[in-house]
């Protein structure tokens, strides 16, 4: 390509788009589109570069290792299918094609497995401004969150002092995976003579049902702490339902997110429970573990739900899960094709019977790793803020968890202001609520019960010590000399 022809090409390449790989042929490509979003959708498509530019990009990509190429290919697949998903629809069980939002809202409420909760679904706006410029596809795009509200059937008319729980999930997971944990928790909490008001949990904007709602507007630069702000938006959206006492329970990435929300609003939570939270002074994972590369290489399409179920049950990673949790993953963690990533069922084994991950592996990778920075500093950033926590903290750690390498547990305890405590669950890895839902729920329940009692006592003492006629002290109105005024 001559210099003049290269100059003619440059104005039509969006400055934020990087070259990638074609999802089917694996050939290097670039994504081009006009700058103006007002152009007809027919011109917003993937343009194949010439043979000359393909060679140039092949040379460009030569400096990346295989793991980095995998991550860049994830970028390319998302960008490629962005143009194919302008009118993406899915097949409903009733036959005709339906919009994704209609399909998601087809089950507005249901009962959990043991019948202990009635679950209501809500769609609410996410916090509008994301932390990173590429947090959304376009800067003006607005995201939505799918929220589950768990209402205990044994507490139809909540009273003052009943506990509200805000929960945040781990990366690559979805909110329904925590339902067995919730049911064990409410059973144990009610045995102690206390009541839960509600449990609230949202899929983060790019995962689970939220990711499906937003798949046309998702970017590739994710900040964990966007969800911290989304939690505050959630509370603002339901001011009459989310009332004190409020406690936070966050697993893995969700732990860091709720700790950050507590830092943003120091008196929001009565206490915070971090279930193996991804918070560390340096790297969250040891050098031997590379979760982003593992996610990039994972399988994400199966010919049928039966094939997917057989696959998951054969993997050691999932065999350690409680069977009830794995059943929920098969129910909510998979979705039928077509999707934005796989818009054409004829090109996928199984056709319209094929299933893929509800949380795409591409967004899972972007959440593990900021490809724009080749780093993920959120765990370290939150560790630096631990000393400013204003509420009691409880850590529930898995004995064999991959993130508890070195002396990370000891460092977290040293950095966290007292009162704080840590519980280690034996024979348990990083996925504590999935592997040991009963054991972890009972620890959390006992801790929450204690802290709510303390909160209630302190609240009453504070009210009693605050005179109803409190006003400005009269001494501030006493005459002062000129010198004292100066």
From TrEMBL:
Domain AB hydrolase-1 as annotated: residue spans: 165-442
Question: Where is coiled-coil annotated?
Answer: none
Top-level lineage group: Eukaryota
Which InterPro entries would you find in this protein's record?
AB_hydrolase_1, AB_hydrolase_fold, AB_hydrolase_sf
Q: Check the record and name the Pfam families matching this protein.
A: Abhydrolase_6
Q: Which GO terms describe its cellular component?
A: membrane
Q: What is this protein called?
A: AB hydrolase-1 domain-containing protein
